Amino acid sequence: MRIFKSKTRESESGSRNPGNRSNRSILHISYAVTGLFAAMIVYFLYFVFVGSQNVIGSTYNPRTDSFAERIVRGPIMSSDGYVLSETVRDENGNESRVYPQGELFCHLTGYTSRGKTGMESFGNFYLLSSHINLIEQLENDLRGEKSPGDSIYLTASYELQKVASEALGDRRGAVIAMEPATGRILCMVSKPGFDPNTIAEDWEEINSSGKDEGRLLNRALQGAYPPGSTFKIFTALEYIKEHPEDYEDFRFVCTGEYRDSEGNTISCYGGEAHGEQGLYEAFANSCNGAFAEIGGELDPESMTGLLEKLLFNSKLPIDMPYTQSRYALSSSDTEFLKALTAIGQGNTLVSPGHMLLVTSAIANDGVLMRPEFIQRVESAGGETVKTFREKEYGRLLKGEDAERLGEMMRLVVTEGTGSAFRDAPYEAYVKTGSAEYENGEKTHAWCLSFVKPDSESGSSGIAVAVTVEDGVSGGRTAAPVARAVTDAWYQSAKN
Amino acid sequence: MISIYIEISKYLIIIIMALYTFCNFRYFSAAGIDAKEEYCIIQRRTVYLLQLVSYSVIFLNTGDLRVAVFFLAQAAFVFIWLKLCALIYRNISKLLLNNICVLLSLGLIMLTRLDLGEAMRQFVIICVSAGLTLCIPAIIDRVWGIMSWSYIYIGVGLILLVSVLLTGSVTYGAKMELTVAGISFQPSEFVKLSFVFFAASMLGHSVEFKNIVLTSAIAALHVIILIACRDLGTALIFFMAYVAILYIATGKKIYVVLGGLMFSGAAVAAYTIFSHVRSRVEAWLDPWSDISNKGYQIAHSLFAIGTGGFLGMGLMQGMPEKIPIVEKDFIFSALSEEMGAAVALCVILICLGCFLQMMTIAAYMDMSFYKLVAVGLGFEYIVQVFLTIGGVIKFIPSTGVTLPFMSYGGSSILSSFILFMTVEGLYIIKKNEDEEFGEEPSDEDI
Do A138 and B359 touch (CB under 8 A)? Predict the structure, then answer.
């Protein structure tokens, strides 16, 4: 461009002509502005082509609903090809949303008749977009017919969901599993559930039934439970952090009952006396006394910092409604509360989903992958429209810390409370928990477990979090559920 | 049939706008006046075509006969106005005029689609403004006094700003409007112009250090009053324009550095002092966590742009009315939703093209005053475009300024017309001079 070529002529007016120099300055500011606009254009196009995908599906976006006038809502499929949700039309053209699996996937798929929830909400935009070819689309437009929407393939499989649901049985609680290396959510069960087919008719009843029933509540992500002994993962981690050189020298003699300086007592599960315990044994046996002792001497500020890095009191990278885990302890709190908190009985509340993320990070050398619920979007013609690639969320733990926690969790299986996994054909890593509530009269049973990827059997690894409300103990009530899910995963990988 | 036409029209509009924008940039590299003239003629035709296609779609959707009449009126306006300009000023820049027409047309199309009544009011304002500003190039060309009226510019500017500060009404947290004899207007839109004239006449006269200090102090006074009115977007436009003028006048980078430092300091101070600045920055960083309140506007703007995608939803097929104050600050989002990011991109490029042409004109002006006026006005224009578009696409925090020629609002339209016609005046001065001195204009034509 010749546009800035300057012309100097002896100025005939009284003012001085700044001439070439100022024209160079004009050139500079023109470049600067053009550069700024180039950056803005790149940002704009990036948003239109990439960034908007995560934005426009929001339930706050009023536009998606108007798509339903032109498009038949697409189906939601399980990863193994079962229809979880589809729109059927009767001869009069009336549409209704049908859930062939009844209650089985209720919290995962959600529903559409009383507002949208679950994947019906999160995947709304995809379900109401059509990627059949243009000619077909034009043809439908001409005939005034709706075009078929795209289908969503979930990362969860029907088979695993069924195993998890059956293992949990009629008990209240949640089972959620994820592939640590990819972040794919493999199953997510919460009980009691509801039938999404009849949600509109049952609405009054569901909402008026007993408060603790909470059938619409997705316990896997929205449940808030005391973590019980599963919290010892964090206590042990902090202890190692504060005693990097000599944590292996830790010794505690367990008499079955721990008494602090003010005379408050904490007893081990069933009053069992574990005898002399190192850190690893105490973790494997879930010795409350040993961890209460540790809790008393940990630095609360440092502990809070550690936990916040592990996603306590903060947002989780989950694209569904969830409850944030809560933790609060300061130096001014009583010794007894510190001890209780260290064994997961203080004011701490966690969701099974959060504990699953921590477990997955341990399984994956400390790195957390972003949990994904959708694997891919397919057009009605069977062509893949969009694939959800695995994304790293970030490092939660140092590699060596993840390794140490792995060793401890392995010990839980070989020597401690994770005996349910002892005869498994694979190497499992477990932490159980029995969280008391209602003044210790009742117990929520916890089990966190994982299996590492195994190239020999072709199994890609799985992390499972199980919570059973009002159970006997983590080892006896929750661990068998986690075992059943892990077994099924292992089997399917072998076949 | 109608649905096919609507679908096809979407692509037609994109092609039309792409062609227009292409001509806009080809113009600069075209050799010779005839080739340039050719591109201008193509541009003019695409403007009519754009209006025809757009209004036929709106008409088919609404069945409102007034839309058809409105289309004819607009086409007639473009025809008559361009003819008048060319008749009165032989040497006027047709490219800038075309750009005004295409931006006005796009704005009016979106306004018609949102609210026909508002669009018609806007159209009346456009006609009046276009008529009134026809004389501006002549004034710029003939009245030599404009170079030395610095005290008049200062007086008018400061009086207007102070009266807004004392008696102005508050809209969206900022004092911007003044009502005189039942007509409310935004004085800052006009002070924008007097501000540039003041700075250009002071610094065009002398760049001695004493004079720079005095000019900067008066400029700062303008900006401070605007900040006191909480009209921070406009304050920023004034500030940037002044820094640009000062840099061009002195050629010293130190002023740009100083300006940058002052801007950073002021930004931090504004963030700490003003709660509405804080909430806008928060809405910019994360509109989603407070989507029903602070983040509402920007979230809905992003919904509109994102759902529209690159090709757009098609005219009348989107929901731009869901965005708050869509006809003013967020007209760009509405356009992007329905005509597509492709057309929105063309708008960005056209605006940038206007700026680059103003800078070209600045480079060609011999007299310091004219040069500085061109730079100042060009900067005010492009900074305003940047703040508006950057704000609605979440590139920067939103500042609540309007998009020249496209947003609804009388003051904005009139002041944009004055701004562009002033630049036209400079262009005409230069071209007339070239002819007088018998230079061959063809090869070095601007």
Answer: no
